[in-house]
Amino acid sequence: MNCEEAGRLLDAYLDRELAGDQRLEIERHLSHCDACRSRAHETEAFRSFFRASAPRYRAPDRLRTRILTAVRSQRATPGAGRAFRRTIWLYAAAMLVVSLCLYLCLSLTVFLPDRDKPLCHAAVLDHSRSLAADHLVDVASGDRQVVKSWLGARLPFYPPVVDFPIAGYSLIGGRVVVIERRPVAVVVYRRDEEVASLFCWPVSGGTVMDRGRQIDGYRVDTWSNVECNYILISRLTEREHDALLDLLRDRLPSEIY
Amino acid sequence: MNLDGSSDTRSLVQTGDKRSLFETLFLPHLDAAYTLARWIVQRDQDAQDVVQEAYIRALKGFEGFHGVNARAWLLTIVRNTACTWLKQQSRFSNIVPFDETVHSLPVDAPVSEGSQEQRIQRLHEALNKLPVEFREVLLLYEIEGWSYKKIASALDLPVGTIMSRLSRARRRLQKEIAAGEDQEVRNEL
Question: Which pLDDT score, from 0 to 100, does residue A95 have?
Fold first, then answer.
């Protein structure tokens, strides 16, 4: 190992983040190179100075109050303790009725207004247009970092991009579109000859419902997590579409920990 | 009390009060959340807005939290909220208005004549000038004590990028501080 390589790995070494071979090599280099050893001492001294002196802030009391107010004004949850246990049967009965109604409504979707419908139709239009014009992607790449940074550079947010090389769905790229006047990232996957588009935008303007639909022969699913709203559109078979949906719901970050 | 632990969590879950569980898990990390927001967006008022927004997002996404590490989960949301905020700001204007709080010392730091205090002040100034990508990695590694791997996964970047950002960030800070000290010696002569 020469001084240049040692310099590149020095911080990781001091941070105890280097694995076996590289650690041994840099230790060997440090044992006979005075210049690098003194650099290591300097870096070490700077690290402890930084840790002791970097700014840490106390949240203002005002902020604590603001957050408590905001959290408590969010939709109310059932009261705690004995009162709750006493009325639990009532709740159970109510839940049963509610879930029966919900089941009815869901099975006869016509009765439940679908407020995301215009959005979904616009997304289906964009998806089928991209197929018809044979312009699936603005950036063609199977590398999720490339797709993510390309999209992030053109949008006011960084869309999460995941891929599943072993599951048979390959990432082929992304495009930027405007749906109902908001900029949206589209990540495109392929399985065999079929293409799936995943539309994604931040939840700041409101969240979409968790719901599946059929529009013009396409499967259209909407859902949201902490960060983003999503619409998945494809003509994959039922089983393949569901599998992709599960993978996406599972792997899209927001629940990293 | 073990805030990330299970016994406390379970008893609260049984009472069915989601909000008090949320408060017990996440309010103790308010200082850490605010510090991270200050490091990223810098101005006090902006940091407060970001942290409040992040807590509301966390509350909404609370179902998705599986109780492994509340602090890390919250900080990831704060970081994403802050970055979205920065992006929106830069879209409207590239000119950041001068704000005293950005260039002033943190509230706790006493202003003194001693050279150690001057060195610390120089560090804080240098830190403010560092690109945000460097600041967030420094904070998560040095202050929060995350591993390279954990930072890489939260920021959705390769581990190699985290490694080089940390190293470049330290070099820059060391250089800035040394330059400031040289300047001072010259002024004294």
Answer: 83
Chain B residues inside the 8 Å CB shell of A75: none
- Model confidence, pTM: 0.56
Segments of chain A scoring below 50 in pLDDT = 76-83, 255-257
Query: Residue B174 corresponds to which tokens in the numbers above?
Result: 């060391």
Which residues span the domain enclosing A138?
Answer: 114-251
Residue A77: closest C-alpha in chain B: B17
Angstrom distances, CA of residue B90 to CA of A157, B87, B97: 11, 5, 12
pLDDT bracket for residue B105 (50, 70, 90): very low
Are residues A151 and A101 part of one domain? no
Which tens digit of pLDDT belongs to each residue from B14-73?
A: 434 777 888 888 899 999 999 999 999 989 999 999 999 999 888 888 777 776 788 999
Instruction: Determine, yes or no, domain membership for A72.
Output: no
Residue B83 to residue A71, Cβ atoms within 8 A:
no
Q: What domains appear along chain B, each with residue ranges and CATH number?
A: 1-102 (1.10.1740.10), 105-189 (1.10.10.10)
Q: Which residues of B touch A62 (CB under 8 A)?
A: 48
